[in-house]
Amino acid sequence: MIELRPIPGLPEVEQGADLAELVVAAGAQLEDGDIVAVAQKAVSKAEGQLRDLRQVQPSERAQELARSLGADPRQVQVVLDESVRLVRTDRVIIAETRHGFICANAGVDRSNIPGGEIVSLLPVDPDASAAAIRDRLREIAGVDVAVVITDTFGRPWRTGIANVAIGVAGMAPMIDYRGRPDDFGRTMHGTVVAVADELAAAAELAMGKTDRVPAVVIRGYRLSGRFGSGRELVRPPQEDLFR
After folding, report:
1. What is the gyration radius of the CA atoms in the chain, in angstroms?
2. Domain 3-40+125-233 homologous superfamily, CATH
C-alpha cells in the first residue's frame, strides 16, 4: 500500500527558511524509506528565487510579445531572462529553461506569492535543492528519506496540468524495464517508467492548489537503492522527436 500523508501547518515560507526544519516542526512523522515531496514554490521562496517586477525594465522584444499575448511586459522580460530558447509564443510562451525543462513561461509564476508585484522563478538547481533537504532531514530527524521537488507542467495532447519531478535525491527517478520479459514472456524494448513523475503527480492530490500544503510524505513505495537525479528525466535533444 502506498500512502500519501500531507503535512499541514507549515507557515508562509520566507527567504532563508529551513524547509526540512519546518517539515519536522509541523509534526511530520518520518520513517526510513519515506519520500518527501516538496512543492517548487516553497523551495523557490526559501532560496530567494523571486523577482520584483517593479525593478524590471522590459526590452522591446518583451513589449512586443506582451502586446500579442495581452501580458505584463515586465513578467515577459523575466520569462526571457529565464529562457535559453523560445519554443512558441502564440497564446502562451513555451520556453526551454537553462535546466532543459520545456514549459509554460519558463516556470515564472505569480500564483501563491504574497504581493502583487512579485514572481517566482524555478530553483537554480532543483536536484541540489532536493539533496540539501534530504541531508538536512537526516541531520535533524535521523531518517534516510528520498526527496522530490515537484512542479506542475502542461502536457502535449492532454488537457490540464500535472505535477512532475524537477528535482530528485535519494531515489532512482525511473525504472527501466527494457530487456525484461512481460507477463507473457515478450521482451520489452521501450518501457521506461518515470516513477518520480508518478509520485509527484500523486503527491499533488494531497497538496492541492489552494490548501497551503507544500509538502507530502509518501510511504510504501519500495525504493530500489539506486540513486539518480531529476535531470535524468529531461529527454536529450538528440532523442527528442518533437523539437
Report:
1. 19
2. CofE-like (3.30.1330.100)
- Which single residue is written with the C-alpha cell 537554480? 124
Note down pLDDT in tens along the chain; length 243 residues. Answer: 999 999 998 999 999 999 999 999 999 999 999 999 999 999 999 999 999 999 999 999 999 999 999 999 999 999 999 999 999 999 999 999 999 999 999 999 998 888 789 999 999 999 999 999 999 999 999 999 999 999 999 988 899 999 999 999 999 999 999 999 999 999 999 899 999 999 999 999 999 877 889 999 999 999 887 899 999 999 998 888 877
Q: Which helix or strand (DSSP H or E) is residue 53 part of?
A: none
Which uninterrupted H or E stretch holds 140? helix 126-141
Supply the CATH classification number for the domain 50-120.
Answer: 3.90.1660.10
pTM value surpassing 0.90? yes
